[in-house]
Recover the amino acids of this structure.
C-alpha cells in the first residue's frame, strides 16, 4: 500500500469578476474577431473561491467544482494549468476545488477570472520557471481575450480584441455597484452575430466613448464624464426584454447609471450611497434572479 502524498500548502483564493463601464464593438474582422474598446471594472462581488492543495512533487491537476457541469477537461482552469506547464515545465500536483458563485453566461468574465487566478497561482510558485509579465499575458491571451485583464487588479481601458490594456482611474471610489443576474443566459457568439446583422458599416469604432475621455484630459472616469454605453444592449434587450426591464428598475431605484455587462445577461447599477444600493438589491431579488452588492 503506497504512502499518501504529502500536502505542502493549502490556499484559498478569492476570484473577482468584472463589468464593462463602456463597450464599443467594431465590425467583424477577416479572422472572425471584432475590435473593441471597453473599460473593464473589477468587482469584488460576485466572486468565486479557489481552494487549492499542493502536494510534493510533479503531477497534474485534479479539478473539482461546486457545479459538476463545469468539471471537464475543457474547463479554462484545467487548460490554464496545462498551458502553463507546457510552456514552463512547472507542473505541481494540485487538487483545486472551485466554489462557483459568479454566474456564467452573464458577461461577468467568471471563466476568464478563474483561469487568470490559476496562472497567477502557478507563476508565483514557479521559481526559476517564473514567467515575466508580458510572457504571462501572452499565455493568458491564448486562453481568452479577457484573461489578461484578470492578471491585474485595477480598472483598465482595453482595445484590440481586449488584449491591449491601459490601467486607468475609474473615479468610482466610495461608490457601490448592484449586479443583477436574471435567470437567463446570453450566448456570446449569438450576441456578436446578432449585432453584426443589426447594423451596417463602415462606422467608426466608438472612440468618443472612451479614448477621448482619457487621451485629451486624463481625467478619471465618472458617470457623467463619459457615457455608459454597451453596443450589445439593443439586440440583447430585443431578444430578452426581461433583461432590459432589469436596467429600467435599477434606474428607477436610484442608480446614477446602469448598463448591460459584456454580452449579458448581468446588468449593473452604480449607486452613490450604500443605503440606496441595499434598497435596490432587496427590490430586485427574487423571481430566479441573483443579485450582488459590491463596494468600489
Amino acid at each position: 500500500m503506497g504512502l499518501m502524498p504529502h500536502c505542502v500548502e493549502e490556499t484559498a483564493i478569492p476570484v473577482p469578476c468584472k463589468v464593462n463601464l463602456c463597450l464599443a464593438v467594431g465590425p467583424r474582422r477577416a479572422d472572425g474577431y471584432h475590435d473593441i474598446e471597453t473599460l473593464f471594472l473589477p468587482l469584488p462581488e460576485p466572486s468565486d473561491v479557489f481552494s487549492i492543495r499542493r502536494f510534493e512533487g510533479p503531477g497534474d491537476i485534479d479539478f473539482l467544482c461546486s457545479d459538476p457541469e463545469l468539471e471537464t477537461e475543457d474547463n479554462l482552469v484545467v487548460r490554464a494549468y496545462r498551458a502553463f506547464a507546457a510552456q514552463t515545465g512547472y507542473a505541481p500536483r494540485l487538487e483545486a476545488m472551485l466554489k462557483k458563485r459568479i454566474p456564467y453566461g452573464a458577461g461577468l468574465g467568471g471563466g476568464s477570472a478563474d483561469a487568470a487566478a490559476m496562472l497567477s497561482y502557478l507563476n508565483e510558485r514557479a521559481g526559476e520557471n517564473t514567467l515575466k509579465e508580458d510572457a504571462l499575458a501572452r499565455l493568458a491571451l491564448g486562453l481568452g481575450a479577457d484573461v489578461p485583464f484578470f492578471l491585474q487588479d485595477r480598472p483598465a481601458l482595453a482595445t484590440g480584441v481586449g488584449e491591449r490594456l491601459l490601467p486607468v482611474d475609474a473615479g468610482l471610489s466610495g461608490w457601490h455597484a448592484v449586479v443583477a443576474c436574471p435567470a437567463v443566459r446570453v450566448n456570446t457568439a449569438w450576441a456578436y452575430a446578432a449585432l453584426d446583422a443589426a447594423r451596417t458599416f463602415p462606422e467608426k469604432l466608438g472612440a468618443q466613448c472612451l479614448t477621448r475621455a482619457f487621451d485629451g484630459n486624463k481625467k478619471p472616469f465618472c458617470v457623467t464624464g463619459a457615457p455608459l454605453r454597451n453596443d450589445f444592449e439593443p439586440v440583447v434587450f430585443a431578444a430578452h426584454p426581461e433583461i432590459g426591464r432589469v436596467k429600467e428598475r435599477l434606474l428607477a431605484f436610484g442608480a446614477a447609471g446602469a448598463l448591460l455587462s459584456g454580452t449579458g445577461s448581468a446588468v449593473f447599477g452604480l449607486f452613490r450611497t450604500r443605503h440606496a444600493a441595499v434598497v435596490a438589491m432587496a427590490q430586485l431579488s427574487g423571481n430566479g434572479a441573483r443579485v450582488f452588492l459590491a463596494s468600489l
